[in-house]
């Protein structure tokens, strides 16, 4: 909830009127009797906003990524996937039985070498990458991926879960398929796939998580709609989040010059020892600071992940870094 939109107050009267119009529940999959005009309206608005031909709303970002790879099943497709892509991408490729080549994390020379080596023109190439990587906050170079996509006649799929709605990218032009969760900057629950008309038709006919899942509850669509409206007008929230990210990076670099930082709202600090990471995590929690504690196999080294939000301020960052530095340096001297 980077922009804090999931915590905004809402009008009970407006919510009640919405529910009266659209009924309380759809109780079926969208392809049977669970579709609604509110789905169609939302999908049209989202696709127009992001300049794609079509949009489909899913029950989660995980469902979206499982479904998109499912449409390529039994086709001559070779997937080129970043080493640190999200688990939903990994599962989508695996469950669809697709051949894949893993390229080193954000290593575009390695990716191009693999694309050039697998030059069979009868096999469709598919490049897939997170836009912002959830475990380390690293940001992909979309322009470079577009360049490689065009050079090697590939399809480009970007998971924009941790960038959609923020100021990280100017646009997603020339991306063929965009997937995302709605629970990050959007502050809602659900997932989306933005694509061409042909991809949408394939999703409706072959996307198993869409075909065989019940629709989202109507009240959930209400919150997707309200959060989207707020997202359009969240310029000041985005500016504040960008400022907090820069503020964090400058302070963090002074205390931890050997650690890396990111321009995204996701920050991290890595440790060589699991027991040290766990102790610092527990100490922070006891002092009212909640972080994500990531371990193998999610990450290679024990990691504390920090997610900045619109509701944070400089004092929160100062407190966090002071506590981490205090206990981290203490453990280093043991």
Automatic annotation (TrEMBL):
SUPFAM superfamilies: PLP-dependent transferases (SSF53383). Residues 27-323 form the Aminotransferase class I/classII large domain. The keyword Transferase applies. Keywords: Aminotransferase, Pyridoxal phosphate, Transferase. Its cofactor is pyridoxal 5'-phosphate. One of its GO terms (molecular function) is pyridoxal phosphate binding. It holds the Pfam family Aminotran_1_2. GO terms for biological process: biotin biosynthetic process. Homodimer. This is Aminotransferase class I/II-fold pyridoxal phosphate-dependent enzyme.
């Amino acid at each position: 909830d980077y922009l804090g939109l999931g915590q905004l107050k809402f009008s009970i009267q407006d919510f009640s009127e919405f529910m009266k119009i659209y009924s309380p529940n759809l109780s079926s999959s969208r392809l049977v009797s669970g579709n609604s005009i509110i789905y169609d309206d939302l999908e049209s608005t989202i696709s127009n906003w992001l300049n794609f031909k079509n949009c489909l709303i899913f029950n989660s970002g995980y469902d979206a990524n499982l479904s998109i790879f499912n449409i390529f099943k039994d086709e001559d497709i070779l997937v080129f996937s970043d080493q640190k892509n999200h688990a939903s991408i990994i599962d989508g490729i695996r469950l669809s039985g697709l051949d894949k080549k893993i390229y080193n994390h954000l290593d575009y020379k390695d990716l191009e070498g693999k694309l050039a080596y697998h030059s069979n023109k009868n096999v469709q190439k598919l490049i897939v990458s997170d836009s912002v990587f959830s475990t380390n906050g690293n940001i992909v170079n979309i322009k470079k991926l577009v360049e490689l996509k065009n050079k090697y006649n590939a399809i480009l799929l970007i998971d924009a879960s941790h960038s959609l709605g923020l100021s990280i990218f100017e646009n997603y032009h020339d991306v063929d398929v965009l997937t995302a969760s709605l629970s990050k900057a959007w502050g809602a629950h659900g997932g989306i796939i933005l694509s061409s008309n042909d991809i949408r038709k394939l999703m409706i006919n072959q996307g198993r998580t869409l075909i065989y899942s019940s629709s989202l509850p109507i009240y959930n669509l209400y919150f997707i709609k309200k959060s989207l409206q707020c997202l359009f007008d969240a310029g000041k929230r985005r500016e504040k989040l960008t400022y907090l990210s820069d503020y964090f990076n400058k302070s963090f670099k002074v205390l931890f010059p050997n650690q890396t930082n990111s321009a995204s709202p996701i920050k991290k600090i890595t440790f060589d020892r699991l027991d040290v990471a766990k102790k610092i995590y527990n100490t922070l929690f006891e002092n009212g600071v909640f972080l994500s504690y990531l371990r193998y196999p999610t990450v290679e080294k024990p990691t504390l992940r920090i997610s900045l939000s619109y509701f944070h301020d400089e004092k929160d960052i100062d407190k966090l870094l002071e506590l981490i530095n205090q206990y981290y340096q203490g453990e280093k001297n043991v």
